[in-house]
Structures are given as C-alpha cells and as structure tokens.
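[audit] Reproducing an earlier prediction to check determinism. Same input, same settings, fresh worker. If the tokens differ from the archived copy the diff job will pick it up downstream; this log only records the rerun itself.
[audit] input (476 residues):
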Amino acid sequence: MSKIKTIFTNMSWILVSQIIASICGFVWTLVIARYLGVNDYGILGFATSLTGILVVTVDFGISTHIVRHIATDYDSAPKYLGNALPLKSFFAVFSFIITLIILLIMRCEEVTITITLLFTLEMVIRSYINLMNGAFQAFEKGKYQGIGNTLLNTILLIFILLAIFTDWGLLGITFAYLISNMIALSYLYLTFTRKVTKPHFELDKSFCKKITLYSIPFAIAGVLYSIYYSIDIVMLTNLIGNSATGIYNASYKLINVITLLYSAYTAVIFPVMSKFYKNDEKLLEISYAKSIRYLMLIMIPLAMATTIYSSDIVLLIYGSEFADSASVLSILIWTVCLLFAASPGNILLESSHREVTVTKIYAIAAVFNIALNFVLIPRFSFIGAAMTTVISDILIVIIQKYVIHKIGYRPDNKLYYDLIKIATGAGILGIALHYLHLNMWVAIPVGIVIYFTVIYLLRFFDDDDKYVIKEILGRN
C-alpha cells in the first residue's frame, strides 16, 4: 500500500470516528447545557478546563516522545510501553495532590472541589488512553484507535442521557465521563496486546529516568499549550463568575467539537512526518505545505459561514438562555483556523526534534495570553476572553512561521497564492450568504456550491491534487 493510501486509510478511520464523536458531542453539549443551566454548566467548564491544564502532570510528554520513537523503531514498543504504563501511575498521584492544593488556594466551593477531583481521575484514565492511542498511531493502526474513539463517545453519550433521565445532576454526568473512559481504555489495551504487541512490564529506573528527561520538552510545551487554551475559562470564573463562564464555555464546547478534526489530523500525520524526517526531509517539507493547504481549504470557509450564522447556531443548540454565546462563537471560530494554520508547523518542529522551539513559542504566547486576559476580561467579560484567544493565536502563527522559515523550511510561492485563492473564495461566500439571507439549512448546500465553484474557477486544484486523489482511489 502506498504511503498516501496508508495515510488516507488511517485518516479515514480516525476521521469517521471523530465525525461520530462530533455528533455525540453536539448532542451531549446541547442536553447538558439545557439540563444544568448557566451556573452548573460554568462549574463543569471550570472542572474540565483546570484538569485540561493539569493533564500534562500525568502524561509528562511521555506519550508524544514514545510515538515519535516507536514510529521509527517498532521493536522498542514492548520496553517503552512496559515502563511508561507503571511510570504514569506515579505522576497520577502527584496530579491529585497538585489539583487539591490549587482548589484549596482558590477557595473553591465544596461542589466545585468534588467535581474537579473526579474529573482529575477521569483525566488520569484519559492520559492512559492517549498513550495507547499513540502506540496505535506509531504502528499506523488507525483502525483500532477509530473504533476505540467511537466506543468511548457512544457510551459517554448513553451514560450522560441516563444521568439526565434519572436526574442525577452534575455528579451523575461526571460519573458518566469516568465510566465511559474506563471502558474505552480496557478495549484499547486488550486490542493492542492481541493485535499489535504486548508491553514488557518492568520499572527500569534508569530507563524511566531517560524517558522522563527526553519527555520534559514535550511536557513543558503541553503545559503551556494547556494553559494557553484553558486559562481563560479559569480566569473568567475567578474574575467574573460562573454565569459568564457558562456563556463562554457554551461556545467553547462547540469549538471543541470542530477541533476533533485537528485531533484526527495530528494522530495520523505526526508519526508519518517523524519517519520523513529520518528518511527524506524533502517529503517532510512537502507534507508540511500540503497540510496547510488542505486544512485551510476546509477551515476558512467554515469559519466564515459560522460567523454569519452564529446566532442561529447558538439558539438552535442552547436556546435563548445562552443567546450571548453567539458573539463569543463568531470570534472564537477564527481560533480554529489559526489552530489549523499552526498545527502543521508544530508537528514539523516536533518530528524534526525541535520540540524545545515549540515550548519557547507557547511560553511567549501563554505569558502574553494571561497578561491580555487580565486587561480584557475585567472590561469586556467573555468577549474579552474570546478576543484574547484570537490575538494570541495570531501571535503564535507569526512567531512559528518566522522560526520555520529561519531554519530552512520554505514552501514555494504557490502555497501563498493558493491561500489567497482560498481567502477569496471564502470572502465571496461570506458576501453571498450575507446578502441572500438564506435559512441556515438552505445555506449549507448553497454555500458549498458557491465556494467550490469559485475555488475551481480560480484553478486551485493542480496535477498534484489529481495524483493524490488517484492514489487514494488506487488508480495510479
């Protein structure tokens, strides 16, 4: 099987699972928000955001380091996994202690402390899931990761609906997350040991020390990344209150559903680009440029359409109680474009052993983000938090592209011409939807036709695109 077809096959399994996850996420986001109301939904948002920041204290960058190493040396998998699995249990205990200390320092309410500690346990289980998924990625076995992801999200949706139906409240919803993650982890571990290889369990102190030291740059980058994307909700809770957090979190959850595509992309392309760096740096550079091109082809028009129909989307999903979330959504949707613009660069740097550079970029961005949040949140509440996120994302893209250009990865001018064509197509799409005043459901097919007609007339697709399509279809 060609490398293109392998990538497409793995991407397809993971993408289909992410589509199912997006549908499930859409449903549970809708029902949870309506069931809990603004205040309790704010508590849920705080708990998931804080544990999202602290998840790195459990993983410590180990998963990313192992994926990169195993992708280039399959025989090392039993030893790496056999040491990593017990090693992470020590980090888990440390995470519980850190979380509890932070909650006590912040003088959180008892219910907030309880829910957050339970989500800390869920975070530990999710960390093990990420490790197993990483192992599947390294062996390019996206099928099993896709099945596990589908299993997780389907069971989670069922348990959330049961918790709401039986009126178990916020605590029942929290346990729904816990139990579904435990079931998914069991499936992934059993499947990996049967279909791929068995970990050789041991606790080699010197080897664990080596893994930890090599993983530190990934851990620091992960901490900064988590702080960067979650600190706004934590700061909103402390500076404004749970209601503002609930309004902001409603839009943030919708953004998270869209970014599941980002998870699918990184899961497939990271081990591939790691191999390219070792074997053929020219292919590494090509995959970087193509990734930006195809990701922007999808995300820019999606952001444009979401901005125009943000009110309709929020009213459809959450109802009038969350009407203020529409303005937040129309701003935050552009962070998705910026995230996808930056992601190929992050993977390029990490696969080429420049993870320290990624750490430095996110350190700058995190400091900038926190400082700007302190200025804008007190003045503009959740709108200020959304503005800060977009401005900070722009800073990341600028710094990252400068660094990548400086180290010698310089895509030809065609990439920039193609990005101009995409922006032109999205601009025409936005103008058309604005003046046509179509119903949102009618606008979806009409918008797709308008956008891709413009893209086709601008001659966006070239011989390389035709080759990729033929490879996927097996016609070359």
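[audit] rerun output stored. Observation attached for the diff report: The chain has a mean pLDDT of 81.
[audit] end
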